[in-house]
Design brief:
Number of strands: 15
Radius of gyration: 21 Å
Order of helices and strands: EHEHEEHEEEEEEEHEEHEEHHH
Largest sheet: 7 strands, mixed
Oligomer: single chain
CATH architecture of the largest domain: 3-Layer(aba) Sandwich
Bound molecules: S-adenosylmethionine
Strand content: 15-25%
Number of helices: 8
Amino acid sequence: MSKSLTVLDFFCGAGGFSEGFKQLGFDVVYGADNWNPAIQTFKANNSDAEVVKVDVLELSATDVPKADVIIGGPPCTEFSGSNRGGSGNVKEGMELVKRFLYYVHELKPRWWIMENVPRLLQTLPPKFRLKDLGIDKEGIFEIPKMQVFNAADFGAPQKRTRLLSGKYPNPLQTHSENPVVTLNGQKLSHWFTMRKVIESFPNPLNEPRKGKHVKDPNYNFNVTEMKLEDHFGDHSIMKDEEAERNKRQKTEHPYYGKMKFPDDLDRPSRTVMATQFNASRETMVIAMSNNGRKIIYRKPTIRECASLQCYPINYKFIGTNPTTKYKLVGNSVPVKLSMAVAKAILREAGMRTRKN
Ligand SMILES: C[S@@+](CC[C@H](N)C(=O)[O-])C[C@H]1O[C@@H](n2cnc3c(N)ncnc32)[C@H](O)[C@@H]1O
């Protein structure tokens, strides 16, 4: 049997990017982040990996093991259109991007992928002088590929576009808004809807029931309601006045276009955000009949957001409050997008997938 390919994850967060590789049998050997909840979460789900709490700017390539694949998602708030009108500190964000490229240059993996918001395309040059990456040599470092993908095209129940820069083979699209037969005769599936996720879970306001199971909307396994974490309780419920304010933001905004209120469940969800402000236009809102009584409005629970990001329903998130857990989840690369790239790498390496 061939040996597994190894993966290093810089800015590992909760581990969505790594999880896609792990699902396909890669060996995730290392994760680095400077935020405690991220480190604890990554450790809880990757017990065999070396997980270090460190400022990636302070670390050196000699401190890190070599691996076949280097992945990483330097924080995107600095480049995100939804952050402070897009005027975040781009320079600060670019320092972290350059540090990631420094590791790639020094560790020379066969494949590497850096994930960011598409907006980075406006500021990311395709070439850097080695000196600008902190390498004391003459020469140029070139980014071979920069391409934007929509996670919904790879089976995620979420429309989330992400820029993947690096050296990797193209992932094969499996889903589409308007499925057509592709040139090789393979039919694409229809985009996965938010409804399939939301309807997989019981009413979060009820108590978990003994002996009842929840089927994972993305993968073929169940857990009992008693073991389902981050779903039950009232953390997702919006107060009436919050829902009303959100409705006005979406339907009566003076200059931005109208948005659906509540969200349309028969499409993939909008982008899962790291912060859940009730009055934000980006907040997802679900209408729910509370056990046959009046309609109440709520956000997706932490677990529902995790499934929109395609985490398996037994994935553990370690944080002391819902805000931290929503952030861990919302920061992540959708696992199905990461799996699609991992699968393409296995194909290029001439190796078979363990699953799928
Ligand atoms: C976008 S998230 C990464 C999400 C991850 N790729 C996933 O799929 O779950 C960015 C992460 O970078 C971490 N981070 C920010 N600045 C850092 C630094 N200087 N050193 C190490 N980690 C840093 C944050 O704590 C955050 O967890």
